[in-house]
Amino acid sequence: MSQEIWINLPVKDVEKSTAFFNEIGFHAVSVGNERAKLAIGQTTILLFPDAAFEKFTSSKTADTTHSAEVIFSISAESREEVEAFIQKVEFAGGSIFGKPSEIDGWMYGAGFADLDGHRWNLLYMDESKMPKS
Questions:
Q1: Is 129 in contact with 120 (CB distance < 8 Å)?
Q2: Residues facing 6 on adjacent strands
């Protein structure tokens, strides 16, 4: 069974979020009057205003100032890409919750929150140093 998956993400201001994601190097475009489509590789994330998201899901959105509902992990090609990307995030107004660092001797990553507090991380994995099982 081959199917596509779309991730729906509530945001306070679709226009500002679209600009943020474009500024950090993703491809985001407006779709209709009140939403945007964010493409990252083969993944599609749809940005919806909080009110539309709440109506669609019949529930309140998570308060990202007090909790994390999910973390989006994105692969990087190198340590340098992680560092350059995190600088773009800071410049675009995102917040960094995990400075670039090495993890377990074979991963290098960093974590950030977008304008709405949704959490993301960028991770470079050096497979030549990956532990063998």
A1: no
A2: 44
Residue type (1 letter), 97:
F
pLDDT, tens digit (0-9, with 9 covering 90-100), for 34-93: 899 999 988 999 999 999 999 999 999 999 999 988 999 999 999 999 999 999 999 999
Q: Say how many C-beta atoms besides its own lie within 10 A of residue 30's C-beta.
A: 13
Question: CA nearest 118: which of 27, 20, 28?
Answer: 20
Distances (CA, A) of 51 to 22, 37, 54, 102: 23, 17, 5, 39
Burial class (CB in 10 A: 0-12, 13-18, 19+), 106: middle
Residues in the chain: 133
Question: Residue 3: enclosing H or E segment and its boundaries?
Answer: none
Which of 29, 40, 18 has its CA nearest to residue 120?
40
Terminal alpha carbon distance of the chain: 31
